[in-house]
Amino acid sequence: MGGPKVRRRQPGIETLLPFHAPWRPFGLADAFGAIWTESMARARVVEVTGFGSNPGGLQMYVYAPPRLPAARPLVVVLHGCGQESVEFAVDGGWLALAERYRLALLLPEQTATNNHGRCFSWFNAADTHRGSGEAKSIRQMVRTATQRFRSHPRQIYVAGFSAGAGMAAALLAAYPAVFAAGGIAAGMPVGCASGSVRALMQMRRAPWFRTRIGLAADVLARAPARPSKGWPRVSIWQGLRDRTVDPRNADALAAQWSELHGWGEAPSLREDFTGGVRRVAWGREARPAVELWTLANLGHGFPISAGEPGHGRIGPWVVDAGIAAAQRMAEFWGLTAATGRARLSPARSGSARRT
Asked: Which of 8, 76, 226, 349 has the highest CB neighbour number within 10 Å of its CB?
């Protein structure tokens, strides 16, 4: 009764000391300023209870910068196995992103009661289908957070890493009218597994024989109906040295969502950058429907740019790749229009090409 209850998250000593941060060449004042800003931001994270029936048994945390105006975006961030929601939001650069672009964050957290590894149950139909389990819990959280922050109803986004990425993809399929776009880092295609054994098999070795039409059909089977506003746009990220999630899962994700958007197998854009970074995209150049980033030197981890203040810090399964996935996802979603896209160096002169 009386609406959701709010409890402020108590910051520990890890709030004040960047244990996972490597040495990086910016000034001492900048370093202390970043630590202080992060500390103040973490102190504003609060837990919300009583947000609904919560059939998935998840915990809800939220964050918003001070004096956030109405009609700003809401971004749902889903952690991976063995991670905690707030720590991943800090390490992955999401809290800094929220400060930078004035948006609210919803940080669902898995519990050890549900899964000993604290993994979201992206492989269980009872937790991923519309109106059931963890998917319904997160939908209830979105409704509560949208009301709390008076978020723009057409600017709700979801991003995740690993198991969180698998759940993010499932949410895009189950609630395509809720989410404008998503970000999937080291994730798995919608409908590729049922049960933990099949999930492990899919992660370790993605089947090569799935067709684009078949992959898209897995989404259609879970969606309530073809969304009138179109399918959510998707930014996909994958390390090619990943030994936990077979990189072919990223190819399957790109095929699944580009097929849903009505684009063929051949990408409309291909760009190569230094450090073995490649971006391919399907759709209009100014606003592609699907993009796939592959990082040749990245293993299983969420990519950040630790050398740039505000673009993440090294932590559990958060890796300095010289490129910040959170920032790039926000650019893809159109949340950074005023500042434009960060620049990357081409691999060699003329190597960035459009096909």
From this structure: 76
